[in-house]
């Protein structure tokens, strides 16, 4: 019997949940529990970590899960690695629904870096304004780097940077809005993760229009796994997998 687990927390996971619900498929949606008011999903929903690879494998067995969809954020590396390992251990098919990476367009000035520490190193350290658009985790490499930071979180949260202005706002964001924000805070650099997708793309268009350099943090490399880019492709895979072909 088909019983799907969606590892969620993204816009794409929500779209996948709607597609599965409309198709009448038996599925459970899982949130990490990071936000106080998670978006309601049209599927039975559970919240919180599983307890590592072992905990996830146990959950998969206890709930008779037949397929796992990893629709977590491309930077949710720990969850994605655990899903690969737990599915390998239990023999349950795994598929990732992943948005394509952003690519630089004409007029963009992007400096590609491998991780957060390299992003901090890539900044000039001259006290100028930096829009540090990387969420609320992984901010410590930027401590003591001598910039005025602009942070944008989806909800109020503590952060370690003393010289920071925090804007609380949940996407999708607009180009006029991000242009105004970056001008108002006299931003000289933008630091972002290569998340992909439309909801957070406006800041890159605003940076291009303002001639602002972008420090682009690459996605973490993961072990090989089956990846699709849309719910429609994923439904095709589910049909394929159900026939056991
Ligand atoms: N990282 C980002 O930039 C980002 C951006 C937007 C949204 N999100 C979403 O926020 C959540 C947390 O992201 P993260 O980067 O902190 O994850 P992470 O570092 O990959 O995961 C850390 C731990 O959180 C738990 N976890 C993560 N996603 C979960 C899920 N969907 N359901 C149940 N447990 C989950 C797991 O705990 P156990 O080991 O105990 O199972 C996992 O080992 C994810 O659902 C992700 O899709 C992340």
Automatic annotation (TrEMBL):
**GO molecular function list:** precorrin-6A reductase activity
Q: Does the keyword Oxidoreductase apply?
A: yes
**Which top EC class applies here?**
oxidoreductase
Q: Per UniProt, which keywords does this protein have?
A: Cobalamin biosynthesis, Oxidoreductase
Identify the pathway. Answer: Cofactor biosynthesis; adenosylcobalamin biosynthesis
Q: Which GO terms describe its biological process?
A: cobalamin biosynthetic process
**So what EC number does this one have?**
1.3.1.106
Q: Which InterPro entries match?
A: Precorrin-6x_reduct (IPR003723)
Q: In which domain of life is the source organism classified?
A: Bacteria
PANTHER family, sorted: COBALT-PRECORRIN-6A REDUCTASE
Q: What is this protein called?
A: Cobalt-precorrin-6A reductase
Q: Which organism is it from?
A: Paracoccus limosus
**Lineage start:** Bacteria, Pseudomonadati, Pseudomonadota, Alphaproteobacteria, Rhodobacterales
């Amino acid at each position: 019997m088909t019983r799907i687990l969606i590892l969620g927390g993204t816009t794409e996971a929500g779209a996948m949940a709607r597609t599965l619900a409309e198709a009448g498929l038996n599925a459970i949606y899982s949130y990490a529990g990071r936000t106080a008011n998670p978006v309601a999903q049209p599927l039975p929903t559970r919240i919180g970590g599983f307890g590592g690879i072992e905990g996830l494998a146990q959950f998969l067995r206890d709930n008779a899960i037949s397929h796992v969809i990893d629709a977590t954020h491309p930077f949710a590396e720990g969850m994605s690695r655990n899903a690969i390992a737990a599915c390998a251990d239990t023999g349950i098919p795994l598929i990732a629904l992943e948005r394509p990476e952003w690519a630089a367009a004409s007029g963009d000035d992007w400096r590609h870096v491998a991780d957060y520490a390299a992003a901090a190193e890539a900044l000039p350290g001259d006290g100028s304004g930096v829009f540090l658009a990387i969420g609320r985790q992984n901010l410590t490499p930027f401590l003591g780097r001598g910039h005025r930071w602009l942070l944008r979180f989806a909800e109020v949260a503590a952060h370690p940077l003393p010289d920071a202005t925090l804007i609380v706002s949940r996407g999708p964001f607009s180009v006029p809005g991000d242009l105004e924000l970056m001008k108002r805070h006299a931003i000289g650099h933008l630091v972002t993760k290569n998340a992909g997708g439309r909801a957070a793309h406006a800041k890159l268009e605003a940076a291009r229009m303002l001639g602002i350099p972008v420090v682009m943090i690459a996605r973490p490399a993961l072990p090989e796994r089956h990846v699709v880019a849309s719910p429609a492709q994923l439904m095709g895979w589910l049909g394929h997998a159900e026939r056991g072909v």
